[in-house]
Design brief:
Length: 191
């Protein structure tokens, strides 16, 4: 069910921009390959700055959009679909602090102290905050726009798979219809 893929995507997206929980305990001494206490501290600040008031709304919009595109979710009664989207949104939001505790050391190992300081300086500025807010505000529309190329990609995928595996013309047609049906607009499919 594609509907659940958006929950995973939401968690992944949240890793770079979620609410603060208790900071991870830095190692007593930086070990080679391990982030320093300063890198962990800077990373937590960077992640906190990436959080926006619009974040939860954006996650909810993305989950709603995915549910409207998923053939299985479209077949559910509205009350059940609403319950599932509410549940997915709640679970993603609840997992953000725990997920961040796991992600902060990864980012701390990725960026140097100087890079983290530069990121913080930018995202702590008026321009940086504006960019974060606009990024979140535009994410659902940007995702929807990107999804418009999916039918074309699936068409090419079906053709290449059939070239590789030797499908019949009927098998290719059926595969194309099935792939395209997954991305059909809800109103178009119900007609």
């Amino acid at each position: 069910m594609r509907f659940w893929m958006i929950v995973v995507a939401g968690l992944t997206l949240a890793s770079g921009a979620a609410a603060q929980s208790k900071p991870p305990q830095p190692p007593a001494a930086a070990v080679e390959g391990q982030p320093s206490a300063r890198q962990l501290e800077l990373t937590r600040r960077y992640v906190d700055l990436m959080m926006s008031d619009q974040f939860e709304t954006m996650i909810r919009q993305m989950i709603d959009m995915e549910a409207s595109m998923d053939p299985e979710a479209r077949g559910m009664p509205e009350e059940d679909r609403r319950f599932m989207t509410d549940l997915a949104s709640e679970l993603v939001t609840d997992m953000i602090p725990q997920m961040l505790d796991e992600m902060v050391p990864v980012y701390a190992r990725t960026f140097s102290e100087a890079e983290l300081e530069a990121l913080i300086a930018f995202y702590d500025s008026e321009m940086g905050r504006s960019i974060i807010n606009k990024t979140y505000a535009s994410m659902p529309d940007a995702t929807a726009a990107a999804m418009t190329v999916m039918p074309q990609m699936l068409e090419k995928m079906a053709s290449r798979m059939c070239q590789h595996y030797g499908c019949t013309a009927d098998e290719l047609r059926n595969m194309r219809e099935e792939m395209q049906g997954a991305f059909a607009e809800p109103t178009a499919r119900s007609k």
